[in-house]
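Deliverable D2.4 — example input (structure tokens):
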């Protein structure tokens, strides 16, 4: 694989604009190469074609590169008065800006090289400034985590020893602590790579400190301030004399200083529950007094563990960002040397190495401190366990998954659909089609580098690939078709023919089986994904009582396209709940109560989305959420008008149903294209699209817009209930419902593409993790 493709593949998707534009610089080099090929003398060309390999001497020797503001980070270095004047620096709002002076611009073709170096300097300054800005952000976050760790240690002391230590207990605790620290250090040293041990002694301590639980001796606390020199022997002897006298009081002093942290700390209630929502509505303060219980200690440790894992991922991405960009500058300069037969890469890379991008080791030191702190405090000094949490392994694609998926798809395709299958399997068919569309979404999201796992908030290493999703879809399809075959076989078998009631229960048994598999608590069948889905479904049901996140309203939008599946569930309740399966009669359609509920259940997904919009309007004070809620309210009114028309066949209800349905369809289509997809921008460089497109072909967007408008008629059918004459009513309903699911699948891709581009525009590659403790000064700042 060429470096350009590898470079693009390893980028952080949300930081794509902050990386060096490798392809643009290659284009500048190609311009230089084409100019040199055009101006190459015929003799040199003939000699080259003849196979004579010798170094060209047609170009002057390269006189060198100088960098403005080429400042070393060594404080002992002094500027050389003999340096060229072009080496003077320019300060740009407190940040360094580098500029290369090309001394051969007057040569033939020098203007091409001058343009190349100007663009190269722009790219380097962009990368250097972005990296420095992000490092400053993580250093501030490290200070915040340090304060959280101070509070955690004090909280542990208070929970484990609420009444304090006696003198004998304190001495035993100090002895145990010293032995534990020694054993922990030995174990950590044994499991730490030699390179890390060798390099760690050159790093000075940073703010993020690993704090010991319990009492500390005076020597331990003072040793962190620095090593003593040989000229301080007298002071050490004096300290040795007073050590025994102060030993009895040091434990209490240090313990008191640790516990004093708790006087300035309150518990930050970050859990989103109906109770917290009601308190927020009543404007009850979210910060509560500390309650020193083991349950609260466990919650605090879990929150801090998540915060440390997320913080460590930031550091890893920053380190990768620095390494990839440094490597890219090295590669592009080597290409320049090869094309121009110069030796400029060494001088330029010295400047890169001396810049903040190449010389700063803050990220490396922070990673070492985070690893040491996490291993010590959250994994019981077990390095392998701690590192497995900090660096989760990527999920490997298994051949058996692909084989099983293909086998199930073949079995499902081999089954012949019958009229009985259409009535029994319609619910499962809608679910399978939706899962297949979601698998297609995952495939194209990965192909066009849409970071869907970050957008949805999946735990790293647990997100499913499109093969796993297709395996689930075809597995459900095989189970549904097998239930139909079992039903038909029992109908034709003389032995089981008399057990008609039992044969009718097979579809219900399949539904119960799928529900059991969905709620199964064991770590099988993608448990994390199942629980994630159940959590989102519960949040949709209790929409106004939980904070609305993107997975929640995204699932709510999916449910609005599964109206017919929800009606199928209603049919299951009626058919099996009212006992029609015993008589093998369908009396549900003749029941007025069933027909009324047939439209009420269709409103439920839209009501959930309306409540989610109202919740976001209340929290975010965003008027766009009010408009979005108005869109769903109009849809609810349209469904209600249709319900009234079914109950009372009047021309007035029919007109109202058509009018509100048309308004809802037009408003929803406009919202899809403009707000959800970000298209129809008048001043975009891509005509009526948007400036940034992930799919190279613009025709895809125009086709998707046209399909979205056309397939909205399928959505109208779910409200108005019009039928196509040549087809059976159930067939028409199934086809139209399937078209709406396909429309939703197309909508999913462009909706997440737009969300991803919003993250890219804001360089938002991380999610904020709420911290468990709130300091008084933090509260004052917030106010």
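Example output (designed residues):
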């Amino acid at each position: 694989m060429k470096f350009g493709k590898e470079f693009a593949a390893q980028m952080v998707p949300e930081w794509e604009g902050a990386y060096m534009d490798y392809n643009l610089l290659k284009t500048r080099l190609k311009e230089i190469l084409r100019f040199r090929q055009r101006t190459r003398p015929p003799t040199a060309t003939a000699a080259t074609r003849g196979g004579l390999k010798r170094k060209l001497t047609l170009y002057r020797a390269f006189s060198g590169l100088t960098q403005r503001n080429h400042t070393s980070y060594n404080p002992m270095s002094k500027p050389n008065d003999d340096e060229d004047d072009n080496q003077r620096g320019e300060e740009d709002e407190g940040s360094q800006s580098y500029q290369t002076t090309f001394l051969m611009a007057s040569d033939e073709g020098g203007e091409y090289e001058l343009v190349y170096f100007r663009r190269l300097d722009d790219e380097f300054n962009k990368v250097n400034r972005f990296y420095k800005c992000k490092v400053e952000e993580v250093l501030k976050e490290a200070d915040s985590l340090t304060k959280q760790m101070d509070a955690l240690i004090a909280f542990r002391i208070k929970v484990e020893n609420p009444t304090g230590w006696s003198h004998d207990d304190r001495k035993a605790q100090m002895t145990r602590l010293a032995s534990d620290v020694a054993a922990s250090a030995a174990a950590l040293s044994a499991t730490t790579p030699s390179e890390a041990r060798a390099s760690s002694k050159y790093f000075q301590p940073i703010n993020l400190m690993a704090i010991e639980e319990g009492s500390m001796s005076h020597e331990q606390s003072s040793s962190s301030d620095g090593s003593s020199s040989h000229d301080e022997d007298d002071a050490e002897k004096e300290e040795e004399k007073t050590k025994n006298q102060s030993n009895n009081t040091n434990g209490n002093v240090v313990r008191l200083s640790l516990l004093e942290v708790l006087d300035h700390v309150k518990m930050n209630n970050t859990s989103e529950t109906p109770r917290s929502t009601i308190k927020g509505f009543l404007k009850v303060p979210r910060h509560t007094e500390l309650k020193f219980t083991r349950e609260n200690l466990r919650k605090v440790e879990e929150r801090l563990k998540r915060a440390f894992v997320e913080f460590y991922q930031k550091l890893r991405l920053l380190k990768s960002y620095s390494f990839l960009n440094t490597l890219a500058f090295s590669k592009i300069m080597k290409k320049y040397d090869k094309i121009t037969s110069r030796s400029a890469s060494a001088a330029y890379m010295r400047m890169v190495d001396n810049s903040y991008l190449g010389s700063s080791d803050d990220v490396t030191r922070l990673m070492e401190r985070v690893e040491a702190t996490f291993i010590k405090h959250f994994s019981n000094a077990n390095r392998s366990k701690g590192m497995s949490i900090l660096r989760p392994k990527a999920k490997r694609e298994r051949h058996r998954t692909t084989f099983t998926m293909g086998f199930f798809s073949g079995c499902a395709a081999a089954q012949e659909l019958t009229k009985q299958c259409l009535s029994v399997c319609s619910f499962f068919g809608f679910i399978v089609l939706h899962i297949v569309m979601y698998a297609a979404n995952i495939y194209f999201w990965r192909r066009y580098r849409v970071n869907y796992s970050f957008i949805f908030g999946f735990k790293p290493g647990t997100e499913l690939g499109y093969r796993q999703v297709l395996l689930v879809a075809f597995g459900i399809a095989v189970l549904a078709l097998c239930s139909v075959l079992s039903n038909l076989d029992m109908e034709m078998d003389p032995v089981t023919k008399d057990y008609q009631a039992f044969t009718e229960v097979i579809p219900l048994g399949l539904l119960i089986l799928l529900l059991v598999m969905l709620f199964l608590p064991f770590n099988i069948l993608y448990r994390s994904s199942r629980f994630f889905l159940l959590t989102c479904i519960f949040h949709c049901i209790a929409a106004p009582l939980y904070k609305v996140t993107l997975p929640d309203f995204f699932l709510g939008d999916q449910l609005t396209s599964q109206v017919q599946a929800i009606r199928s569930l209603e049919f299951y309740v009626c058919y099996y709940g009212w006992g029609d399966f015993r008589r093998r009669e369908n009396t549900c359609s003749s029941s007025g109560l069933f027909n009324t509920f047939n439209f009420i259940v269709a409103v439920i997904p839209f009501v959930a989305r309306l409540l989610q919009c109202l919740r976001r309007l209340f929290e975010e004070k965003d008027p766009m959420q009010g408009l979005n809620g108005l869109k769903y309210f109009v849809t609810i009114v349209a469904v209600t008008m249709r319900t009234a028309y079914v109950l009372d066949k009047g021309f007035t209800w029919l007109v109202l149903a058509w009018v509100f349905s048309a308004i809802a369809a037009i408003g929803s289509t406009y919202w899809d294209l403009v707000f959800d997809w970000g298209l129809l921008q008048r001043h975009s460089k891509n005509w009526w699209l948007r400036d940034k497109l992930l799919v190279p072909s613009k025709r895809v967007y125009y086709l998707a817009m046209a399909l979205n408008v056309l397939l909205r008629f399928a959505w109208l059918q779910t409200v108005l209930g019009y039928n196509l004459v040549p087809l059976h009513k159930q067939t028409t309903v199934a086809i139209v419902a399937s078209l709406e699911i396909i429309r939703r699948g197309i909508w999913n891709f462009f909706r997440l593409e737009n969300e991803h581009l919003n993250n890219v525009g804001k360089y938002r590659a991380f999610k904020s993790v709420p911290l468990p403790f709130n300091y008084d000064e933090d509260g004052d700042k917030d106010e």
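The chain has two domains: 1-40+63-73+85-217+250-391, 399-761.
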